[in-house]
């Protein structure tokens, strides 16, 4: 006689049913002890109004990824990062427009050979960083993939993590979420203080000197323009009279008439005069 066959207990049945029914998205992934962060390289514009630059996860995923795997960057608003569910297929990968509706998207797919462990040899031209939001025309180009790297629409703050997926789009491992990353904000025109009292004394002095020099240059230009116009519109004779300051009338040249010789008359015999009386007896 054979031994009676042992029926599986209820606990074993629950485990088997749970493994079949439990959704794959709720299964825990391998957590890689790495936290994404802003690049430590001394570069200008690491964080702007629409972009930020992350360090590349070099030598972080070597023991977890293979050649056929893809490393994705997940970008989410800081308050929406907890609600992000890892996609299970490539068709479920959220594109950039989902950021405005669901608060998250995925971008910058990389292969393992794009993240070598060696340091760059080309200096600052080959800085190992990932610039999020660096493609302003990706949404305008219809040939671009839906996971393009478009500029970020608001200051955030944002959180990011790296997600390792296989060729079918199933998640394999993930890193920790980064600390909140806030973008730079420009000042509103109404908030700019234009009161001169806020300016330093040196600035006021320099501004006054520049304004005075501008006024002197304007006066010199007007004087030169006036002199030039005067020389064009006034004849030389008129300018000479204005400089002398006297009135010059017309000069008439008469014909030369020699004076007539007047006959010499004795004294007292001029015409129209009575002759002088004689003093002789």
From TrEMBL:
GO cellular component: membrane
InterPro entries, per database record: Uroplakin-3
Keywords of this entry: Membrane, Signal, Transmembrane, Transmembrane helix
UniProt KW Transmembrane keyword: yes
Sequence intervals crossing the membrane: 203-224
Signal peptide (residue range): 1-28
PANTHER family per the UniProt record, alphabetical: UROPLAKIN III, UROPLAKIN-3B
Protein name: Uroplakin-3b isoform X2
Organism, as annotated: Leptonychotes weddellii
Gene this chain is encoded by: UPK3B
């Amino acid at each position: 006689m054979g031994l009676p066959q042992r029926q599986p207990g209820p606990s074993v049945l629950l485990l088997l049913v749970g493994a079949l029914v439990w959704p794959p998205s709720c299964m825990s992934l391998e957590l890689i002890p790495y936290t994404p962060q802003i690049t430590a390289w001394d570069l200008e514009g690491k964080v702007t109004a629409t972009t930020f630059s992350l360090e590349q996860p070099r030598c972080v995923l070597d023991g977890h990824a293979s050649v056929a795997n893809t490393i994705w960057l997940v970008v989410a608003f800081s308050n929406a990062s907890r609600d992000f569910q890892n996609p299970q297929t490539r068709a479920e990968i959220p594109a950039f427009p989902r950021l405005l509706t669901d608060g998250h998207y995925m971008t910058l797919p990389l292969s393992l050979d794009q993240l070598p462990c060696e340091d760059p040899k080309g200096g600052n031209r080959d800085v190992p960083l990932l610039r999020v939001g660096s493609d302003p025309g990706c949404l305008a180009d219809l040939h671009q993939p839906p996971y393009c790297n478009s500029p970020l629409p608001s200051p955030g703050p944002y959180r990011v993590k790296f997600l390792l997926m296989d060729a079918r789009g199933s998640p394999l491992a993930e890193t920790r979420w980064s600390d909140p990353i806030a973008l730079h904000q420009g000042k509103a025109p109404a908030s700019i203080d234009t009161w001169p009292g806020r300016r330093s004394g040196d600035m006021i002095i320099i501004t006054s000197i520049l304004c005075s020099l501008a006024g002197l240059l304007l006066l010199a230009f007007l004087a030169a323009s006036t002199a030039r116009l005067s020389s064009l519109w006034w004849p030389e004779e008129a300018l000479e009279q204005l400089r002398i300051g006297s009135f010059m009338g017309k000069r008439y040249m008469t014909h030369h008439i020699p004076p007539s010789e007047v006959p010499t008359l004795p004294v007292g015999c001029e015409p129209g005069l009575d002759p002088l009386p004689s003093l002789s007896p």
